[in-house]
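Lab notebook, bench 4. Still working through the backlog of constructs that have no structural model yet. Next entry is a single chain of 148 residues. Request: give me the structure tokens for it.
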Amino acid sequence: MNELELRQKFENNINKVVTNFNSICPDNESKLSFIKTAIKSDNMLEMLSSENTKLLKEAMEAFIDSAKVTETRKMQQAMLMPLLAKMFKDTPFSEMKSYFEQDSKMYSLFCMMFVTFKYEESLKKHGEEHHKDILAALDKYVYGITSL
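Model written out:
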């Protein structure tokens, strides 16, 4: 694939992630409720309707698909870098919640990152060190934001 095709594939995947997740959780309150449920559940997919389970699985697959190819993984990392920078700088939970209220797309991606990293077996098998660091940061902010 050439660079233009890779960029289009990446954008299609991210649009699918956001669109599918927003179909399940259309507003900030439902996103907050979703991550509160995800924290408590060992198998979140069992708690969703079959239609929402399908949407969530498709979103997770699109999120992972963007990470499989080096070029699109770099695009994904660049897009998520502002969010990750905030998380690794220990941004206060209330400030992070305000950030999400202003940027619904990033809030959706944050939620999908959390669910994907928490539940996707292929990520656990690879066990890359940065995955553990990201999951730890995601856990911290999910717990922090949901406790406000």
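Notes after review: The mean pLDDT is 84. The chain has one domain: 3-146. Flag for follow-up if needed.
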